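User: Fold this; tokens only.

Assistant: Input:
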Amino acid sequence: MIHIIIKVVVVVVVVAVVVVVVVVVVVVVVVVVVVVVVVVVVVVVVVVVVVVVVVVVVVVVVVVIVVVVVVVVVVEVEVEVVVVEVVEVVVVVVSSSRSISSSSSISSRS
């Protein structure tokens, strides 16, 4: 009778140990899976943030380049217009002064 009780106790202890080992293995696997998922999510978020930052920087650089080009073109056009206007004024003044000079020379001869 004692042999049967000892066998039952040994079987119960072995089953308990196996159950504890299985539970520990399952908990470790679940923890590892959760850690891997969290790491993957963090890596994906970091990659997305880096991509967004790069895209924003590229867009800002392109906008700045376009604005600079537009400003340079507009300033060149304005400078050309001002130069043309100044040249026209100089031509008018010079021709006026020639006309006045020639008129004064004609009037002095008379």
